[in-house]
Each structure stands twice: as structure tokens, then as C-alpha cells.
Design brief:
CATH class: Alpha Beta
Order of helices and strands: EEHEEEEEEH
Largest sheet: 5 strands, mixed
Radius of gyration: 14 Å
Number of helices: 2
CATH architecture: 4-Layer Sandwich
Strand order of the largest sheet: 1-2-3-5-4
Helix content: 10-25%
Number of strands: 8
Length: 108
């Protein structure tokens, strides 16, 4: 999938067995030439940077298995960055945020 010049892999994650680690997901990203992987299945927030690629899980909006509670992710594609903010699913307050430098994505 392409969005605003970014190559993304979208996967629920269960077929790549993300519950056993992210290696298979990462190798799928490399095979598909994806810069970002958005995946689920774990019901917990994940933000991992690996050799120029980003593995991102928004958490779970209704049945979190992590300490952060129910959450959702907002991604804003800006000129120089992709801004990510995780929000509490009930209060909608930002609970975590980070930025991805779009220039760094070009090197993948």
C-alpha cells in the first residue's frame, strides 16, 4: 500500500505469528519493500525501529492486553515527518507520541 509516498504493509499479524516475535513480519516488510508495517493481533502498543523500517501496532480499542489500556493511533503525514500519537480510547487524550523523519524513510 502506498500513502503519500510511503510504502506500508498492513497485516492483522496472526498469519505472521507476531505473538512469537516480529521477525517474520520484518522479513515480509523487506520482501515487499515496505518502510512501515502496521499490524495488530497483539492488542498492545508496539513502536519498533529496525534497520530503517518501522513496525507499529496501534494497540486495541476495546480489549487491550497491555498496561496502556485501550488505545488507538493517529498518523499525520506532514512534509518532513510522520507524526504518530496514541490516544486513550475513552478519554481521547494523547498517551504517547513520536515522529518518523520522512527523509530517513527514503534510505530504505
Amino acid at each position: 500500500m502506498f500513502h503519500d509516498g510511503v510504502r506500508a504493509l498492513l497485516s492483522h499479524g496472526h498469519r505472521l505469528k507476531v505473538q512469537n516475535g516480529l521477525d517474520k513480519l520484518y522479513h515480509k516488510m523487506v520482501k515487499e519493500d515496505a518502510q512501515i508495517a502496521l499490524f495488530g493481533h497483539l492488542h498492545t502498543i508496539v513502536f519498533q525501529h529496525c534497520q530503517g523500517r518501522y513496525l507499529i501496532n496501534p494497540g486495541s480499542i476495546g480489549s487491550s492486553r497491555g498496561p496502556e489500556g485501550e488505545s488507538y493511533l493517529v498518523m499525520e503525514f506532514k512534509e518532513a515527518t510522520i507524526d504518530l500519537s496514541w490516544h486513550d480510547a475513552h478519554s481521547h487524550e494523547v498517551t504517547a507520541d513520536t515522529k518518523i523523519d520522512r527523509q530517513a524513510l527514503k534510505d530504505v
